[in-house]
Specification:
Three copies of one chain form a homotrimer. Chain A has 15 helices and two strands. The first copy, chain A, is an all-alpha fold. Chain A has a single domain, classed as Ammonium transporter fold (Orthogonal Bundle), CATH 1.10.3430. The relative contact order of chain A is 0.15. The model of chain A has no long low-confidence stretch (mean pLDDT 94). Chains in contact: A-B, A-C, B-C. At the A-B interface, helix 1, strand 1, helix 2, helix 3 and helix 7 of A face helix 7, helix 8 and helix 11 of B.
Chain lengths: 425, 425, 425
């Protein structure tokens, strides 16, 4: 980029914003009359902008970027997702926007922010924003596959949001780090900024705890009966509580120092209970079952940070926030659980909620059998992992083009390249 | 003030609290039966106390004062506003208090907190509190003018809250800084505390993002049909998202350093979309129109910080938070938009919402014409700017009296004069 | 504890989590159909995990522990409370869980977190967790006494939650500090970590303000008519606002330095208005009465920090957060008020709400008289204080057993013994 043009480097995004405006003028209108409020919208909104944003402030010198890019990405993606996710159900070339669509756009932006977590600190701003635009298209397509082709039950989005976002991110990470030259730093040795400070770990807790608090609202927002809503809230609450207790006990057991807690576990593995229960939270898993899922997810996540993240790093997949441990593996766990729970669903237990939860199972027995539904749940999971990881790898290679301004090694995990920083601090 | 009496310096406010208690005993009672909950109340409450409070913690050594005075002012003003705003509609000398009134008192306190943003760091505690008491009286009177005399549509309060608060603040700033003697510091050179630290910019983001998140709730809280509510939420959401993308792109273009973001823009101009859409958010501006307004407001706000704030400072108007760029100019933009949108409103498009939004336009055509309504919108805006800026100047001159303890130059932007500070940090 | 086993020190809690899972499998099921949402749940959830957690980050080197143990304790207690609090009303050995039960479990966890506030920084992790498990059993029993035996009106839980938690904590503090040997530190002099830093006081404000904001939701969540709900919100809002103004004015008057605010008062005494109005907030105290209660509680609380906390410390009761001033004394005030207000309740004023608020007073006059109800309110308060303080003392002595790993003096108020800390900060 020419020095004089560097101020203009984000102007392509502004042009994209102008295009979005024109698309909205042409294709959208306000939705018809709605007599009920969309529950879960405000709480989910907090999760996206405060939750994800502050969770990623744990890096000591990347707080501005974590908060800023989280905001920039999500503000762009929600607009773009409103169009993409309604593209497949447009009538008369018109998209009717309701508050429910805003909620769904927020949920879709979570996908991109999960991917951001994998790339945090070593992808440039332009790389992140281009990835976000592509990922939204692929993610909305995959969401449509899961919902309308596989007709999978996935009310909390563990398959279509969490698994998708995590494996798209790991795919992009593989591509971005593939045979990357590590330029040795000249002059003074580079300080490793890939770590927390005392204060940054505290601000990260703002994000972590708000995510934890509103997760029951997130998982239950798109349920379609009062009883299913209540089950989703209860199951998510219990799974999160059990994952939290488990995380603390196992963190002390697997820490480096004797019997101390590791903040990385506490900020992340505590949340795995929300992911792991996501696909099944509106089903009849029982309060005890929800707790069992929470315990399992806490163990998976802590062990993931201890063993899997270092192993991935060896094969060239950097995962700064450990999204594989918070979103990826717990989501796979949830997808497999959903196959099993669906396969054993009966009209006797589910009553009128049976068709509400499993759209393709008819109450009169004319649709899928429970076993078939279980198979489709599994296929939706496998399909999502394939689409997201392949999509991530391809997108990752595209953004290695010089235009996107790949960071030098000494610019990583640092706000300095992107922000005017206060002098003394 | 005599040294021994200095501990008593806030006791006049306690006496005012006692007077408030007596007025409540005499004039208030609980409101009648209400079958619905008041939506938007809790979210607005977060905006006032967390949003405004933390947004103003961006100054490195004024965090306690920002949070403390925000809280002190708002807690006083909500009580005082409950009385003032119902003064004009009292029956039998009794004010019936409902949850809706609490919401309206919170909204009125926003006016005072916007003014506080202009005076942040250089007005003393007693000055701020006295200004708050006067401003509440004038602000409630102006609110009554806008709503009941001009009958202007202003559901998000851009005219009666944002423009009023900003120009009252600039007026007070002009008066406070008029021919002020700048005493040169003796001994060691004064450190300039009018700036951020790395941590204070992060805590400011808590406020900024919470304001952003709940702005759709704020703008839509006082709508009076389900469809108007939904439009207000959608329009505010889209305007904010577009303002955010615009702010990031333009901040990089207009920053001091090459292509970097300026935290002042990110914390503030992102929110201008909420202000600019405020007066028109329940109208049929279309989703594309909402995005256009957001884009415009982001540009206005970033350019305001770059060019207008330094120009105002030269003529003696200090605006610490840049409330003119976040609240003032975007609110004027919103008021002018509301005149245009109102003037083109038709029964065909608005249906039963026409009278709900424009109280003075009757569905049977007996009231104002759309063009007349547009004129009244404009008059409400002009009147508000005149009342607020004149009120601000007068109040500003009053609080220059010695009793209010004007700060010395080396006490500015510093918590030290007001707080017991921890020793080592 | 053997060095090799120290990693396993929290595994007993994991075993307890496994036991909880089994109890949930055996005893619980989803509750029946509910047509309404449980109001106040999400807001209360924020208070418990963000509010209490961040309020206790005021200590400069105990932020991780404050947030971590708050989370660990509450996640454990909510599960345990769900069983304990329904134990007395079980039918067919089955507990039906609804969203309302989740709210009540959150409320019960407040009790334990108040106790945590008294012991903050000098009780070990295992001590805190064991105390939490015992306190939940005793607290749920006491709650049942207050609600079903004394049939006391206590909608905001001032008696059963705030007084209980505070005096259980002071009891445990007495036991933990009784004839404790203070080992003089060897080598370098110990730094006193029992104090705030500039940043930790700011993060504490996150907790304080969120508690303040959502307190009206907390106090009103369990009301059982629309009018009672609205009164509870209005009274709590006004009491908090008045307590806040009072706290600022009196803090400046009673501070150590001339006319400055003390952050300890601002973070805590502002909230006393929510406690003091808790037991009576759904009653006809009038808006003026609510303000009077707020003023009174602010004064009690500031004077408590100034005079009572040092006096308690002299007799061996350490109260790190001053829970006696925020929860204890204001709750006693509320309990006494509730006796007086109940004794003067009449059918004429209360109408159909009379029986709704005072379960034991029948509308046809066949139940208790108002005077009798007042007596029972008082007895509920006295009984709670006795049960909690005796329970606290006994539990405190139990956790002095070596197994619970009492902290050495130089480990107090320090995250170091419990957390892997970042190197440079």
């Amino acid at each position: 980029m020419f020095p004089k043009l560097i101020r203009m480097k984000y102007m392509p995004l502004f042009l994209f914003q102008i295009v979005l405006m024109m698309l909205f003028f042409v294709f959208t209108t306000y939705g018809g009359d709605t007599n009920h409020d969309q529950r879960g919208y405000e709480d989910t909104h907090v999760m996206i902008f405060i939750g994800f944003g502050f969770l990623m402030t744990f890096l000591k010198k990347y707080c501005y970027s974590a908060l800023g890019f989280n905001w920039f990405l999500a503000a762009l993606v929600v607009q773009w997702a409103l169009l993409n996710q309604s593209f497949y159900s447009m009538k008369n070339n018109t998209i009717e926007i309701t508050k429910k669509h805003l909620l769904e756009a927020d949920i879709m932006s979570a996908t991109v922010l999960i991917t951001f977590g994998a790339l945090l600190g070593y992808a440039s701003g332009l790389q992140l924003l281009f990835i976000a635009i592509i990922e939204t298209v692929v993610g909305c397509f995959n969401f449509w596959l899961v919902e309308h082709i596989f007709k999978a039950a996935d009310v909390g989005g563990s398959i279509a949001i969490h698994a998708f976002g995590a494996y798209f991110g790991l795919g992009a990470s593989l591509a971005l780090n593939f045979k990357k030259k590590t330029v040795p730093s000249e002059g003074a040795p580079t300080v490793n900024l890939n770590g927390a400070s005392y204060v940054s770990d505290v601000t990260a807790m703002i994000g972590s705890i708000f995510l934890w608090i509103y997760w029951p609202s997130f998982n239950s927002a798109l349920t379609n009966s009062n009883m299913a809503y209540q089950r989703a809230v209860i199951n998510t609450y219990l799974s999160l509580a059990a994952a939290t207790v488990t995380t603390f006990a196992w963190s002390a057991a697997f820490c480096k120092e004797k019997g101390k807690f590791d903040m990385v576990h506490i900020q992340n593995s505590t949340l795995a209970g929300g992911v792991a229960v996501g696909s099944v939270c509106n089903m009849f898993i029982g309060p005890g079952g929800a707790i069992a899922i929470g315990i399992g997810s806490g163990i998976i996540s802590v062990l993931g940070y201890t063993y899997v993240t270092p192993a991935l790093e060896k094969i060239g997949i950097r995962d700064t926030c450990g999204v594989n441990n918070l979103h990826g593996m717990p989501a796979v766990f949830s997808g497999i659980l959903s196959a099993g729970v669906a396969a054993s669903a009966t009209l006797q237990v589910y009553g009128t909620d049976l068709h509400g939860i499993f759209e393709a199972i008819a109450v009169d027995g004319s649709g899928r059998t429970a076993g078939e539904q279980g198979l489709y749940q599994f296929l939706a999971l496998v399909s999502t992992i394939v689409v997201s990881s392949v999509g991530g790898v391809i997108t990752g290679f595209i953004v290695r083009a010089p235009f996107f301004g790949q960071l030098k090694q000494n610019e990583e995990y640092d706000d300095e390249p992107n922000w005017e920083l206060p002098g003394a601090h």
